[in-house]
Design goal:
Na+/H+ antiporter like fold; transmembrane helix; globular; mainly alpha; single chain; 369 residues
């Protein structure tokens, strides 16, 4: 059970460490690469926390995690995930509805303050029900960005954007300070160097066994020539698997007599990946042509074509049917979103049906929640 707990926590790729490096304006990271790293790191953290909590239930339980209990554990894992998403989406829609159908925009200070409190309410609600607060907060932010950001006044848009950015930078600094101080204040009486090195090695192997097959599956669901995950991008994704605060925080909650060994090994892996892998990020991006403005589209297409031809067995008819289904789904969602969802919750209107009712303001184009 300790091995399962350690595997769950060490698999968390830290978005703070990764995105603080990838998101640096000086690096000019490729947009697709940044989006993939962002989505993977945030959702990966949430899934790791949920999985850790699921395994933690069985550590001191009289019930042994054997073959007969695995279905119940999987059901608990998926239930916690789905309910966390439901809490985040539901509260996001509720907040958007309140902002859309009230005159709160006439009070910018109250408007910005309530938005911050509603976000905290989402996190606290999920944690109170034993769910994943991070996953609920992430989907809450997606909903608020899509709908509620257009309901805010100009003053509130500017205020919330600067406020959340300031808080984010402050929290990143505190997290890295906490991890750095833990090197000198932590308990390392039971630090096993061989275990730490093997943990780092198997983290690299396991990440490669996930990145490349999943990227291939993702490319099969993407249109040819549109946002393909090239082999170079996959290599950078594999290299960008930095571990950080989430993994270390979970390791501090490890039960049992070997908790010091797990905490020290996790801290070693976090420090190594952040300093070594993070320090070479710019060189890797330059070497693989993953910076904006570099002409790497042809190479990116060529290095994937060979792999696609070797593995793909999909017929032209199947590809056409898949493209038709994707187009119909997108068209249905956009129509439903414009005609029903945005009428209730707000959002960016499409000015092609009733020009008088769908006027875009410059403030909405500039605002990014």
């Amino acid at each position: 059970m300790e091995a399962l707990l350690f595997g769950a926590l060490i698999s968390a790729v830290d978005p703070v460490a990764t995105l603080s490096i990838m998101g640096s304006p000086e690096l000019q990271c490729d947009t697709l690469l940044y989006s993939l790293v962002f989505g993977e790191s945030v959702l990966n953290d949430a899934v790791a926390i949920v999985l850790f909590k699921t395994f933690h239930k069985y550590y001191n339980s009289e019930e042994i995690l054997d073959g007969s209990v695995i279905p119940a554990a999987l059901f608990s894992f998926f239930t916690m995930t789905v309910l966390s998403i439901f809490v985040g989406v539901s509260l996001g829609l509720l907040v958007s509805y309140i902002y859309k159908h009230t005159s709160i925009s006439e009070f910018p200070k109250l408007e910005a303050s309530l938005l911050y409190l509603f976000c905290y309410l989402c996190y606290a609600t999920a944690e109170a029900f034993g769910l994943s607060g991070i996953m609920a907060l992430f989907f809450n932010g997606v909903v608020l960005s899509h709908y509620n950001s257009y309901n805010l006044s100009t003053t509130a848009q500017t205020t919330t954007e600067q406020f959340f950015a300031t808080v984010a930078v402050t929290m990143e600094t505190i997290i890295f300070l906490y991890m750095g101080l833990s090197v000198f204040t932590g308990r390392f009486q039971n630090w096993d160097i061989m275990f730490s090195l093997l943990g780092l090695l198997f983290c690299l192997i396991a990440r490669a066994l996930n990145i490349f097959p999943l990227s291939l599956i993702a490319n099969c669901c993407r249109r040819k020539g549109e946002n393909r995950i090239s082999l170079k991008t996959q290599c950078v994704l594999w290299f960008a698997g930095l571990r950080g605060a989430i993994a270390f925080a979970l390791s501090m909650n490890m039960p049992g007599p070997n908790s010091d060994s797990y905490a020290s090994a996790t801290l070693f892996i976090c420090m190594f990946t952040t300093i070594v892998c993070g320090g070479f990020t710019e060189n890797i991006l330059t070497r693989f042509g993953m910076k904006q403005g570099l002409d790497n589209d042809d190479d990116a297409h060529d290095d994937f074509t060979g792999v696609e031809n070797l593995i793909s067995t999909e017929s032209p008819l199947a590809r056409r049917l898949s493209a038709d289904l994707q187009e119909r789904y997108r068209s249905f969602w956009h129509d439903f979103d414009d005609n029903y969802m945005k009428e209730l919750f707000g959002g960016d209107r499409v000015p092609d049906r009733q020009a008088g009712d769908y006027e875009l303001s410059e403030q909405n184009d500039l605002y990014d929640f």
